[in-house]
Automatic annotation (TrEMBL):
Protein name: carboxypeptidase T
GO molecular function: metallocarboxypeptidase activity; zinc ion binding
Active-site positions on this chain: 415 (proton donor/acceptor)
UniProt keyword list: Carboxypeptidase, Hydrolase, Metal-binding, Metalloprotease, Protease, Signal, Zinc
Keyword Protease: yes
Gene Ontology cellular component annotations, sorted alphabetically: extracellular space
Domain Peptidase M14: 141-450
GO biological process assignments: proteolysis
Protein EC: 3.4.17.18
Pfam families according to UniProt: InhA-like_MAM, Peptidase_M14
InterPro entries: Carboxypeptidase_T, FN3_dom, FN3_sf, Ig-like_fold, Peptidase_M14
Catalytic activity entry: Releases a C-terminal residue, which may be hydrophobic or positively charged
Amino acid sequence: MSKPMKPLHYLIAVPLITLTTTICAQTTYSRVSLRIPREGLAWLQAQGVEFDHGELNKEENTFITTIDNKALAILQKTGVAYSVLIADEAAHFQQYARKENFYKQPDAIMLNGKLQFESPCGSHLTNVAVPAGFIPGSYGGYYSWQEIQQRIDSLVHNYPSLVQKIVLPGTSLEGRPMIVVKISDNVATDEGEPEAFYTGLHHAREGMSMMNLFFFMQYLVENYATDNRIKELVDSRELFFLPCVNPDGYRYNETSAPSGGGMWRKNRRNNGGGDYGVDLNRNYNVDWGVTGAGISTSHDPGDDAYVGPSAFSEPETQAIRAFAETRHFTIAIDHHAYGNYYVTPYGRPANHSFTSPDLSFYSYASALMARYNGYFAGDGMATVGYYAVGNSRDWHITGDIGAGTKQKTYGYTVEVGPGNAGFGFWPDPENIIPLAKSMFFANLQMAYMAGSYFEVQDMNTVAVNTVTGNFNFSLRRIGITNAPVTVSIIPIENIQGVGSPVTVNSFANYFDSVQRGISYTLPATLAAGSRIRFVYQVNSGGINQYDTITKIFQPEAVFSDNMEWTSNSNWTLSGAWGTSTGSAYQGSRSLSESPSGNYTAGQTSTATYNSNIDLSDATAAYLSFWVRHRAENAYDKLQVQLSTGGTFQPVCGINTVCEDVGTLGNQPALTGMREAWTREVIDLRNYLGHGAVNFRFRFTSNSSDNADGFYIDNIEIVKSTLQLLPVRFISINAVRTTQGAQISWEAVTDNNHDHFEVERSDDGAHFVTIGTVAAGAAYRFVDVQPGAVNYYRVKAVDKRGRADYSRMVSLTVLTAHGIQLYPNPVENMLHLRFNLAAKATVLVTITDIAGRMRYQQSVVVERGVTDRQVDIGQWPAQVYLVRTRNLQTGEERVFKMIRQ
């Protein structure tokens, strides 16, 4: 039995110098795990063991790849130790390709973040809801060529205002159509919006490259009506999808391996002499046909990397060229399988150079796309171990610019999925959805970055110490399109007023940034320790982004360190931890796990603060610091860990990643690359009431490569000890009675208490006093003229005129489509009470203030009173909108709900 493989850390393939895969009856492909010889993988190729994709495990010194039976025979003769993972990939796939294995996970919710669809404290990959219309295909779970056409027609039929079918002029060699899907609002009109281009199946045996595009397309159209983020994206972009670049090769796989798993790669050009096919991703005209050391190309018609008789010799690549010359693509992402990496230009770097904005784009975009799936990124040599010339990504960025309307387009190649058992060229059906989910965030961010897109960052500390001032922020251009952007502040809590929005009309270069501020005024009587909350709204090019910010007014400073030291008794440092002059947010030094250079492989080290943090009297507390980093994505990481006397536990912040990829193990950590200084903020709510909290930074690296590491600056912990309610309210409720709305409450008062005032609002923000209840009286009040939607709170006033408030509750006057939400505000379980005149199905949708959908469920409601519950205990504390729609009557209602 072969030794189980550990997770693979780096992805590599070696040059395709003479990759021979002439398909004949006896050709089979095996997936093997081989021990890398001392002479290296290039030596194996020189012996005739030829392969393209593969995964390298540096810790195990092993390499997983797919080879044909000829190469396997040569491998046996070399004496290199190996084990066969899958003897016949096509047969293996056919054995496990059962339609019932194509499963759907329950729909889930997407969390908030500074960028659209970020998930800092939960798994993004598991939280992507599976589109209802993403169904299995008949070709081993994948769509057949006929089903590809049917699925496109279905999208057009079901969403005619959003989806357009475009049949490109000309056909494939065997006469099949090249079909592009366009998704946009007013889809039949060219509105001059930013354009992105997605392609799949350049190589016919890479079915996952097509399936994940259908997943993404289906998600966009299904969520258009319910998720405002998706609506804004579709309304402001023109997205083009070519799911099958190579219809002839794909159809040939169906005929040669009818049950699935066909291993044909090229198109079906008859090259003569029994050889067929051209590698379409070697047929573009940038550096076409160049040969040399480390270059994957072949002029042998029998090889899998055969470049064709000339550049753009194939009708399939000609069709893409002609189409691009009629468009204005800014981004093009070409999907392949397998390897878990993103490949950037160029295939011949000696012939080309990046501009500074080019470097900024590929650096930032690569890190962003890989944030949750743990993919590696770089050029061909850095990722797959060879350079591929004549490829689509190089042509997009530099080829034929100015021909027609073709412009410089930032091109990418993505290799979807790993190579271990169950994955490879044809992942088992049960892995289709997880892999499609793994690419969702990347595909989405490419669509956003095709146009005007920005990253906003709050620049102030958690502490706000004056009642007037500015909330300062930085704004960085991360979209390819240069367009004006406006930043506004939406007050949520304890803000009396804010200044006018700020507009920046232009950012000359990609990744340029500015710092601005918007004035604020707090209530003059705001108590020290009070919570302040607001939202940054960033609007540009039809896209609205929202970032909710929490601060504390005049908090108590618990701890701070600006790292301007060379030795410090406040810290216990292990490994190489120390201060560095290599980078600093402010001053001249920062804390780093590798202050003198790159960190080492196989490292575990900590920086532990020696003193206890006293949160015994805290009602709120936050840890914040500035950080920038370069680390092997998903494998080398920094965790903030806290302890109350036992085991240290990692905690999540606004920038952490929490996925089951690499070495993360679903534990929150900072990993990958952030070139710009970024503020990390951690809510310490789970440690309130503890008098001896310890914290540390823990860095770990795996046993392979190293990088520059992490820099940390300006650490601080603040807390509030404010008891927000001097009068301790035990409960407050609002119910409908025959007299009106009865508000009742229980409270513990002291001798200084004078009276209560009952206040009402119809929007949850602007309140008026509707009654007074004297001290000693029963704690209830009847609102005899309630509105349709009512928000109530009770104001406690003492004998000196000082006041504080209870929490807010809401009451909806029930109608034929009646619903009551309680409690409101809510901490954990939201209750929905329906009171209908007739049985009906009610669609309940909950969104945040940005329109991001957090929950959607169809509820069958019987006549009379029906109760339902929604667990929102893990949702961010903010305002939400609850929308209900009676599917029988069409009646709709909207309610405001506050998660506190």
